[in-house]
Amino acid sequence: MKGVVKTIRGVGGVALRDVPAPAARAGEVVLDVIAGGICGTDLHIVADEFPYWPPVVLGHEILGRVAEVGAGVDEALIGKRVVAEPHAGACGVCYLCRRGWAQLCADKRSPGWGIDGGFAERVRLPAHLLHVIADAVPDDAAVLAEPLAVVCSGYEQAPVEPGDLVVVVGAGPLGLLAALAATAYGAAGVLVVGRHSSQLRLAAAAEHGLAVARSPDEAASWVAARSDRGGADLVVDTTGAASAVAMATALLRRRGRLLALGFGGAETIAVPWDAMLQRAVTVSFAMSSSHTGWLAATELLSSRRIAPEWLVTPFDLAAWSEAFDAVEGRHVIKAVLRP
Predict the structure, then answer these.
(1) Are 249 and 275 in contact (CB under 8 A)?
(2) 41 among known catalytic residues
(3) Are 93 and 44 in contact (CB under 8 A)?
(4) Which member of 7, 44, 313, 331 is catalytic?
(5) Catalytic residue among 41, 238, 239, 249
(6) What 3-state class would DSSP assign to 39?
(7) DSSP 8-state code for residue 40
(8) Is 174 helix (H, G, I), strand (E, B) or coil?
(9) If DSSP codes are grouped into helix, strand and coil, which group holds residue 146?
(10) What is the rounded (10 degree) CA torsion for 306, 85, 18, 44?
(11) The pTM is what?
(12) Do the bridges between strand 81-84 and strand 61-69 make them parallel or antiparallel, or are there none, so unpaired?
């Protein structure tokens, strides 16, 4: 079968290769892959900026149909359309695992970097990580379950309270999903703030009913016009940029909440420490996705309280390089590979 493989360490080294078809082992399933979403992590792996164990098939945002089950797995799963938590290899016995934070286990080896992932015709995964997706959910929405679960897990750390004014910094897939989820969770107003290079994404967001701003000044005006509390209640940053943290601090009310969901790529960034202290800002960092975050994400999709399929642009697996370029160039919101 064909797969998009990170073949060697270093920058680049990605190719569409013939790879062995997987067979289900005890406790595992094999999926016929329907679609795999390209994440920023995949770009970081190509750029040699994220841990990985080559040769490895890329892709951890996976939608598929169960084709084969191993020993100990319920055969009723065969034929089911599923998504999967990317926490393969978590030990199950460390402090983090036993607290329900398997996503942070040091032994975790997720599909797409630690074990073969979903940019292939088939993928093998642990059965206990699967979530069945309701038939009513289109494929282009279901494939977004993993990034939506990241958002929902973040909102466990910094909840959206009914009536909140929420600002999301970053108009990429994670930011737009964060905005849609905040609306579904009962926010009174949600604003997406993007930069000049995100015009296509901001235009699409506005077309689908989201309020958008293209500068810190626009964002400040939007907040001032709507808040009687002195600022936004919650700012979600999906960029990891120092400028975004500074803007978030300026937009937040006193005792406001800042949720950090995005990597910035720098080892350290400057933050407005005194201003954050004076506002008594609560800062929360959320990494990867919890099991309960997945339950929330799949419920939001199944109930159609979120219908995010408009974010997706599909590409054939053979066009993987074109798809990666489209993501890096911000020509699409979310590129998805379809074997």
Answers:
(1) yes
(2) yes
(3) no
(4) 44
(5) 41
(6) coil
(7) H
(8) helix
(9) helix
(10) 80
(11) 0.96
(12) antiparallel
- The beta strand positions in the chain, using DSSP E, are 2-6, 14-18, 28-37, 56-57, 61-69, 81-84, 122-126, 130-132, 165-169, 189-193, 211-213, 232-237, 252-260, 282-285, 312-316, 334-338
What are the structural domains, with CATH classification, of the chain? 2-148+289-338 (3.90.180.10), 159-285 (3.40.50.720)
Q: Identify the burial level of 51 via C-beta atoms within 10 angstroms of its C-beta, where 0-12 means exposed, 13-18 middle and 19 or more buried.
A: exposed
- Lay out the sheet containing 14-18: strands in order across: 14-18, 2-6, 56-57
Q: Does residue 44 carry a catalytic annotation? A: yes
Give tens-digit pLDDT for 9-65: 999 999 999 999 999 999 999 999 999 999 999 999 999 999 999 999 999 999 999
The amino acid present at 151, given as its one-letter code, is V
Which pLDDT tens digit goes with each residue over 161-187? 999 999 999 999 999 999 999 999 999
Return the amino acid letter for 20: P
State in Å, rounded, how far the first CA of the chain is from the last one: 10
Burial of 119 (0-12, 13-18, 19+ CB in 10 A): buried
As a whole number of angstroms, the distance between CA 142 and CA 294 comes to: 12
